[in-house]
Amino acid sequence: MRSFIWCVVVLVCLIFSVNCSGSSDSCEGKTCPTGQTCQEGQCVSSSCFFGEVVCSGQCVDTKSNAKHCGACGTACAAGETCKNSLCRNTCASGQSVCDGKCVDLKTSAAHCGSCGTACVTGETCKNSLCRNSCASGQSVCGGKCVDLKTSAVHCGACGTACQGTEACEDGQCKSSCAGGKLACEGQCVDVQTSKEHCGACGNVCGGGKLCSGGKCGCASGLKDCDGRCVNIKDNYKHCGACGKACNISVSATDLAKVDGVNVSSVTADASGNMYLMGFISSSGGVNFGDVNLRKADHNHFIAKLSPTKKWLWAVGLTIPIGRPRIVVSKSGEVYIASFFRNKASFGSIELVGSDTSDPFVAKLDKSGKWLWALKADCSGNSSASRIVIDSAGNAYVTGAFREKMTMGKTTLTSLGLDDIFVAKVDTSGKWGWAISAGSTFVDNGYSLALDTTGALIVAGRISKDATFGERKVEGSGGWDIFVAKVDKAGKWLWIVDEDVSGYLKDVVVDSNNHIYVTGAFQGKATFDGIELTSEGKEDIFVAKLDNKQKWAWAIKGGNSFSDSGEHIAVDPTGSVYVSGIFQGATYFGATRLFPLGKSGIFIAKMDSMGSWDWAMSVDGESAYLGRGIGLDGSGHVYIGGYFKGDVTIDGQKLSSTIGDSLYTAKLKQETQPCSAGVCQ
C-alpha cells in the first residue's frame, strides 16, 4: 500500500511539475536548461553520481576535489591534493609547500624555517636558520661580505664609515696607521708589499708583478718583458729573450656561401658544427642542401652546417622585426631569443603579441624540430638581446624593457624609460624568476655569460644613478658601462661600473671565472687606474676583470675613425678572441689591417694577459658580421656573416649572384712552441 501511494505522488509531481524534493524547472525566476534541476537556488545537473554533492552548480566528489575538499568551498593550497576529504601535501618527505612550490625549509634561502622567511644576500639557510656564508672573519653588510676590521665603509659595525683620510684598523677608524702603514682608500696598508699600493697609495703592480720593498717586480725565474712577468723559457712571444717571438700563423679554410640570405647570428659546437640564423632576402627562396625554404612561408631561417660543409638541416620561422641570437647546448639543442611584434610563428607554434615589441625565447631539438616558444607580455617596447644555457638546459636572457613586462607570475616595472632585465626559462619552456635594474633614464643589458658555479654575469650600460637589488650605483652623469653578477636564484650579488662613454657589447667568462668584456669608447676610459684614450671618434676596448672584481688589464685598438669590438670568446687556455668593425688602417699589436672600403670586419686573438697574437680581416665593399664567435674543441675559430658583390677572406674570394649572400669560414691557427728558450 505504501509503495502504491509513493508511486502516485511521483506521478503527480511529473504531471503537474509540483516542486517535490526541492526540484523545479523554475529556479528563482529563471528556467533551468534541459537536463538540469533547481537545487539550493541553482540550476544543476540532475544526474550527479552516487557520493557526489552540488557545489557552485556542479556535481563534485568532496573526497577528492581540491577546490571542494571535505565540504563545498574548502580549497586545498597550491601543491596539495584532496584525499579522503583531507588536503594533503604532495611534496617529498621533508618538504613543505611555499608559494605553490615544494621547498625544504631547512635549506631554502627564500623560505628558511618557514614560508616567506628569506635570508639576505650573503647568507645561506642551514637547519632552518639563516647563516652567514661569508669567509671566516667576514660579515654581511648591505648584502655584501665585508671585513669589519678593515672596511672603511663598515668599520667595526655595519654602516659605521670612516671619515676623510681616516683608515679602518682592527675595527676602529684611525687618523693615522701604526707600524709604518699608510691610509690608502680607507685602509691601513703596508706599501712595501701591497700590490694595489706599492710604494705609494694607488700605485698598482700590473702584469703579474709583485710588490717587494715598495717596488713592483717579477718573481724569481720570471723576466719583465713589455711590463709583464714572463718565463722566457716557455713563452712563445718572448722565447729566450724579451721580444724574440716564435712563429704564429692563422689561415681560413672551409669557406662556404649561400645566396639569398643574410646572417644575424652564428655559433659552433665542440665537434665543429656551425649553427647560423638570419633573414631570407630572396623572393624565390633559398636552398640549404636538400632543404628549400620559401620566403612566402618564412622570413627567417636556422641551419646547421657540418665540419665537412654539408647542410644537415634547416628550418624556417617568421618573426616581424628583431635580429635573434642563437646558442647551442652541449647536447646539440638550439635556443634563440629576440623580440617581435603582432605575430611570430615557429613551425606549428604561434605567438601572438601586440603593436609594441615583446621579447621571446624558442627552442629546437638537435634535429631541428621546434619544441616550444614563449614570450613576455609588455606594455612598452622591449627586447631580449642575449641568451645563455646552463648544463641542465635552463635558459637565461637579458635585455631591456619599458613600462611593465610580465614573465609568468612576475611583473617588472621600469624605474624610468628603459630598464635592464634578467630572466630564467626552465627546460619545459616556462618562465622562472625575473629581476630588473636601472635608473630613471635609459639602461640596457647587452650581454650575458655563465660562470663555473652557474651564476650569471650581466653586462651593459647605465645612465644616471641606478639600482641593482640592494645596491645603489652612483652614475657619472653620462653613460657608464657595468658588469654585474646574479646568483642562480635571481639575486644581484655585486656590480662594477666604470665611467666609460660608449658601449659594452659582449662579455665572456673563462674556466677560472675571470671575466672579459669588449665594446667601444670615446675620449678617456678608466679601469681601476688603467687609463685608455681613444685615437678617433670611437676605439675598441678589451678588458679583463679578476675574481676580486678588479680590472687586471685593459687595452685598446683603433685609429682616427670609428672602430668597435662587437663579440668576444675565450678558449680553455685563456686565449681571447674578439671580432668587430674597423675603419682605416688599424694596428692589432704588430699586425696592421686595411679595410677594402670605408669599413671592414676584423677577427683577432690575444693571450690571457691582453697582448695581441694575430688579426685577420674580412674584406668586401658590403660585408657584414654575424653576431657571435664559434670555437670548437680543437682550437678552430668559426665566423659568419653576409655580403653583397664579393668578399675575400685570407685571399679566398666568394661572389654573390643575387643580393645578400651568407658566408662562413673556419680559421686554423698554429703557434710554434717555445721550449728551454728555443722556438721548436
Q: Point out poorly predicted stretches.
A: 4-25
Shape: globular
In what order do the strands lie side by side in the largest sheet?
53-54-57-58-62-63
How many strands, what sense, and barrel or not for the largest sheet?
Answer: 6 strands, antiparallel
Record field, number of beta strands:
66
Strand content: over 45%
Furnish the topology, listing elements before pairings:
Blueprint: H1 2-16, E1 26-27, E2 30-31, E3 36-39, E4 42-45, E5 53-55, E6 58-60, E7 80-83, E8 86-89, E9 96-98, E10 101-103, E11 123-126, E12 129-132, E13 139-141, E14 144-146, E15 167-169, E16 172-174, E17 182-184, E18 187-189, E19 210-212, E20 215-217, E21 223-225, E22 228-230, E23 248-259, E24 261-268, E25 274-280, E26 286-288, E27 291-293, E28 300-305, E29 311-317, E30 325-328, E31 334-340, E32 343-346, E33 349-352, E34 358-364, E35 370-375, E36 377-378, E37 383-389, E38 395-407, E39 410-425, E40 431-437, E41 444-450, E42 456-463, E43 466-468, E44 471-473, E45 479-486, E46 492-498, E47 502-509, E48 515-521, E49 524-527, E50 530-533, E51 539-545, E52 551-557, E53 564-570, E54 576-582, E55 586-588, E56 591-593, E57 600-606, E58 612-619, E59 622-625, E60 630-631, E61 637-644, E62 646-649, E63 652-655, E64 661-671, E65 674-675, E66 678-679
Antiparallel strand pairs: 1-2, 3-4, 5-6, 7-8, 9-10, 11-12, 13-14, 15-16, 17-18, 19-20, 21-22, 23-64, 24-25, 25-28, 26-27, 28-29, 30-31, 31-34, 32-33, 34-35, 36-38, 37-38, 38-39, 39-40, 41-42, 42-45, 43-44, 45-46, 47-48, 48-51, 49-50, 51-52, 53-54, 54-57, 55-56, 57-58, 58-62, 59-61, 60-61, 61-64, ...
